[in-house]
Amino acid sequence: MTSEAVSIDVDGSAMPGYLARPDEDGPRPAVIVLQEIFGVNTEVKRISDLLAATGYVALAINYYHRTHPDLNEPYTPEGLKNGFAAAGKVTRATLKADVGAALDYLNKLDAVKFGRVATWGFCFGGSVAFISATLPGLSAAIAFYGGSIAAPFPSGEPEALADVNDIRSPIFLAFGGKDAYITPDKVERIRAALTQAHKKFQIQVYPDADHAFFRESSDDLDSSTVVADAWDLVQAFLREHTS
After folding, report:
1. Does 198 qualify as catalytic in the annotation?
2. Around 105, how many Cα atoms within 13 Å sit in the side-chain half-sphere?
3. Is pLDDT of 192 > 90?
4. Structural domains in the chain?
């Protein structure tokens, strides 16, 4: 596996990214990794490296690049506060522009199998993954515990469910049953909206898991845990829709 820092132009603004790819030759499916609210940190790079080690080209993008290009906050109350401040500066339009630019960037790489690109987002990035499913040319979207799918975005804009009728690609959503941010009634509202809109989706709820259950989970990937099960489901979903 190799990795490098890259820069992607988005309407004249330089969007930093972290690109990880397998060592083997040949075009591969790709995944755009969508950060938590804390920035493109060690955890986001870990996910990207995990995907690359599994055979995918992974690109983590910094959608705070217009106002907070170097944001990298710790998992503390202060870090959360700073992350929410940065997230409040982005809009649905800028998020779609950033993911769209990442999609175009990947499709131009020789290492990427054209038209075989998915997204995988966590927390705030899970909400971004949901709206990314409305973009043309995306193969699939994976949303882990997206807090603004059934609640307003930090910017004050409407919840991602407002775009449910515009979803184009299959979507896989994972939640923790003990998540205080995303309560069971919100999960069921998401399920009902996707069902009513006749979208192709899969929802997995882990009753004993909390918010951010996949974070810093390297040691649990190969054991009989919630993390291992979620990782298996992600790999199966990606194989189905990006191979």
Report:
1. no
2. 24
3. yes
4. 2-242 (3.40.50.1820)
